[in-house]
């Protein structure tokens, strides 16, 4: 018996399988290159390295103010702030020093007549924070804090009280809740920070006292300091941030809200600000000779 075997070649099928394999390999290569770019160039260090976390943020948004000492009318407009923040490790992973410095300038206007009010301001806060909870990427930090706020409200269209310089300093309650999102390709970090004043000393003019008496002390008008607490002065500062580590830089986006209500000497003062946060963060560690090491691949105490 004669057995004949016929072998049929199917070139189209083979070419289709090869094309799919090449596409799959190319996609895998692109994914690997993307992960390598986001994570940056790796480096090694033998031993525990505590880093300092630094924030450089730009905040822009809307502001509204009622300052009865300068004007009985509400003013609304835009403001811009630059915020610098530092987290320095102390003792162990659970302790660190948090410092903030904000410089801002607002330009709200009176809706009735369009006259502007200029709002230069400075805010600084120092908190000695303790990590109360740390589990599965979730972290809760609490701290007593000291803060100083200096706010100037300048109304050049006024004939008498053209400005009001307000200053307050004292003890705050500070807390921060954060969560590290465990994504391999883009390991993001979400954080919420809250600060509330507890007991402050405020610099404020007397009711009906003119600006010139307020500044010069004429007519026996002394500079007065007042003790403020939640019964006559309430304030809140809160910030929601999302950190995106891409290559060797961690980019930051978020929102910030500031609210203040104060009633001293029958004079009402209210300020509210909501802004969009954009910026970046750096991880640094001081080395010998005053040099610094910066990388996104350090396990930070922050």
Task: Write a brief structural summary.
By secondary structure, the protein is mainly beta. The chain has helices at 11-39, 211-216; strands spanning 52-67, 75-90, 95-110, 119-135, 138-154, 163-180, 189-203, 225-228, 233-246, 249-264, 267-286, 292-294.
Annotation keywords:
302 residues; mainly beta; Lipocalin; 10-stranded antiparallel β-barrel; 12% helix; 57% strand; elongated
Describe the SSE topology.
Elements: H1 11-39, E1 52-67, E2 75-90, E3 95-110, E4 119-135, E5 138-154, E6 163-180, E7 189-203, H2 211-216, E8 225-228, E9 233-246, E10 249-264, E11 267-286, E12 292-294
Antiparallel strand pairs: 1-2, 1-11, 2-3, 3-4, 4-5, 5-6, 6-7, 7-8, 7-9, 9-10, 10-11, 11-12
